[in-house]
Design goal:
The complex is a heterodimer of chains A (157) and B (494).
Chain A (H helix, E strand, L loop, with lengths): L1 E2 L1 H19 L14 H28 L2 E2 L7 H24 L1 H15 L6 H20 L15
Antiparallel strand pairs in A: 1-2
Helix pairs in contact in A: 1-2, 3-4, 4-5
Chain B lengths: L1 H10 L2 H19 L5 H12 L4 H18 L1 H7 L11 H9 L3 H34 L4 H18 L4 H16 L16 H4 L4 H18 L20 H24 L5 H15 L11 H25 L5 H12 L7 H5 L1 H27 L1 H5 L3 H20 L3 H18 L5 H23 L11 H26 L2
Classes of the chains: A mainly alpha (157), B mainly alpha (494).
InterPro entries (chain A): DUF1468
Pfam family, one (chain A): TctB
Organism (chain A): Skermanella aerolata
């Protein structure tokens, strides 16, 4: 999905203005001319200038491309749903992994994602369980990453 | 001499060698699956390298990236789908050879000249890095400021696509680098009172998001190519190596030299080296009309070039701590984590570490021949790995890897945010590499700028007072001003 450069430029311009204004609030160091705000301010100025160039270029192409040119997937409800589910599953992991534990969370997430992506139903639970346990063994047992146990804490090893 | 022996002791240990072999297999696998890039392989490897000895960690990254760059040629040749962007320059040519029934010749040439290119880049690294380090010893904050500027400038100017979008990408990276407490003034910036943000944005989580998660998003949107109908080449890969070498050693050498030079340029890596070398090969060929019809000449020159670029990219990374491309940007992060801070002093204080890196480079490029042979033979199997099982597994890897950086879920949030950012940026033609270079070089740039300003009492002239600094400064400013001046000059002439 290509968004016209003028729109992206406008968003970036607003963003750079916000950054520039916010950077003014950083405390100055007494007797030091170059404090914490110098760098962010410069970046916001440079970003602002780039956005203006983007806006100018995007306006010239506006007649041909319009505001947004949709990629095939953007018209496909199935693909958009898959993307939404993928993102939702990562958020689900972030929220649920501590209370629920790594093993149940990863297993549930994999089962759903495999299902959405069309893995054969009979293979799904086997693959999900196998991959979850393999990743758990690799990172928890071999690399000693403290993956959360959650509800499985009484059976932790 | 003692240092070389020490280095050999560091490298020739069972755990290091096993790590290198495993990393090689991983690199070959990732490189030969289209959509999974060499940079992504490296990014996924980093969380695992946390738990290794420094030499094993560096060995894993060197081997993995070299193998992935070579393996990218396999699906390019067999299916016309480049496995990594570095193979894209000559994919059409190699596929044309496959259609003419010369797939073995193309893959054999890729393997031979990739390994030779890698060894050449290594030789340059071995010769150039220590002597450059002696020069670098005289550098002060002024020179480092200009070097960082030069690296960032090259990253936006040399890359393909729109320069202005490259600049935006760079500014986003620099801005991300300012988040947190880690700045010369020690003031919290853009943290909005959030404790996690105080520590700054971890660049490894950002990397995994930008290079791996964004690719998974592209896959679930059905934007990946189908690779199920591949035929593995059956013939002998090694036939004709002697003849190829005798006939094309000039092209190979030219590709090696150009590739190493482009790799050593901060910000330009293997993919750009391959494009430039392919064009150069066509320009100087005696038979340019054969290019595009399945002619091995251009393939040899550009495959030599992209592997040589890997060694070249390590020169500025080891000597100045300035990354040559996005892979060495990751490497620099790992070097700091492992206490092997890059810079000229490492050549004096810990020469054994440097020699160990050199040794691993040589080992990796020699091991490439048997491992590459095996990968080509099992190409059918590799490319048939069901993507709908592979991609969710990689996503789980990304999640656990981002968690492992600080053992906190914050890393996963960073990963997700940057995955979305990377996806939107790529969709709209913004290159991603400048963002990563901005995140890595931002703190260096700011620190050296502030130090320099304090030293020179707030006078900008200080940046031109030392001859080395003045030279670097003039080069950097010339790269900014000359294209602009040329542009306005052309416009004024109509």
């Amino acid at each position: 999905m290509r968004i016209n450069d003028a729109i992206l430029g406008a968003v970036l311009l607003a963003f750079s203005l916000a950054v520039g204004v916010y950077a003014r609030t950083f405390p100055a160091i007494p007797g030091q001319e170059y404090g914490a705000s110098v760098f962010p301010t410069w970046i916001s100025i440079a970003l602002g200038l780039c956005s203006v160039v983007l806006i100018a270029g995007g306006m010239r192409q506006w007649a041909e491309t319009g505001a947004v040119s949709l990629a095939p997937w953007a018209r496909s409800g199935h693909h958009l749903r898959t993307l939404a589910i993928t993102i939702a599953l990562v958020i689900f992991y972030i929220l649920a992994s501590t209370p629920l534990g790594f093993i149940p969370t990863a297993f549930i997430a994999l089962v759903i994602l495999f299902g959405v992506l069309g893995v054969k139903p009979l293979q799904i639970p086997v693959l999900a369980a196998g991959i979850t346990m393999a990743v758990h063994y690799g990172f928890y047992s071999l690399l000693r990453v403290p993956l959360p146990w959650g509800v499985l804490t009484p059976w932790a090893w | 001499m003692d240092a070389i022996l020490l280095a050999a002791q560091l490298v020739f240990q069972l755990d290091v060698l096993v790590t290198i072999v495993l990393a090689a297999l991983f690199g070959l696998f990732v490189g030969s699956v289209p959509g999974l890039t060499a940079t992504m392989a490296t990014a996924l490897l980093v969380p695992i390298t946390f738990f290794m000895s420094p030499v094993a960690a560096i060995g894993a990254i060197v081997t993995c990236s070299a193998m992935a760059i070579f393996a990218g040629d396999i699906p390019g040749t067999l299916l016309r789908i480049p496995g990594t962007p570095a193979s894209a320059a000559y994919t059409d040519e190699a596929y044309a050879m496959t259609r003419k029934g010369q797939g073995e010749l193309a893959l054999g040439a890729n393997l031979l000249f990739s390994a030779l290119g890698g060894l050449f880049g290594t030789a340059v690294l071995i010769v150039a890095a220590p002597s450059l380090a002696e020069v670098a010893l005289q550098f002060s904050s002024f020179e480092y400021f200009w070097l960082a500027c030069l690296g960032l400038t090259c990253a936006t100017v040399v890359g393909s696509g729109s320069t202005i979008k490259g600049l935006v990408s760079l500014m986003i990276g620099l801005l991300v680098a300012t988040i947190g407490l880690n700045n010369p003034a020690g003031v919290p910036r853009f943290t909005f009172g959030n404790v996690d943000l105080m520590g700054g944005i971890d660049f490894i989580a950002a990397m995994i998001g930008l290079f791996a998660v964004s690719e998974i998003f592209r896959y679930v949107l059905g934007m990946s190519a189908d690779t199920s109908n591949v035929q593995a080449p059956a013939g002998n890969l090694f036939t004709g190596w002697g003849r190829l070498f005798k006939q094309y050693w000039r092209q190979s050498l030219r590709g090696n030299v150009l590739g190493t030079a482009i790799g050593a340029l901060p910000g330009a890596g293997a993919d750009i080296a391959a494009w430039v070398s392919y064009a150069v090969s066509k320009r100087f060929s005696k038979t340019p009309e054969k290019f595009g019809t399945g002619h091995v000449e251009g393939i040899i020159e550009s495959t030599s070039s992209n592997n040589a670029a890997l060694g070249g990219a390590w020169v500025p990374a080891l000597v100045f701590g300035i990354p040559g491309d996005s892979i060495t940007a990751i490497v620099i992060g790992v070097l700091y984590l492992k206490g092997m801070n890059p810079g000229p002093t490492i050549f004096i204080n810990n020469p054994q570490d440097i020699y160990a890196v050199f040794l691993i480079f040589i080992l990796a490029n020699i091991f490439m021949v048997p491992a590459g042979w095996a990968a080509i033979k099992s190409a059918r199997l590799l490319m048939r790995v069901p993507r709908n099982v592979l991609m969710p597994t990689i996503l789980l890897f990304c999640i656990v890897g981002s968690f492992a950086i600080n053992n906190s879920a914050f890393g996963i949030s960073v990963m997700l945010a940057f995955g979305l950012l990377g996806f939107i940026m790529e969709e709209n033609g913004f290159p991603i590499a400048p963002t990563i270079l901005g995140i890595v070089l931002g703190p260096l740039l700011e620190e050296n700028f502030v130090t320099s300003m304090i030293k020179s009492d707030g006078s900008f002239l200080g940046f031109f007072e030392r001859p080395l600094a003045a030279g670097l400064g003039i080069i950097t400013l010339a790269i900014w001003i000359v294209p602009l001046a040329l542009y306005f000059w052309r416009r004024s002439r109509g």
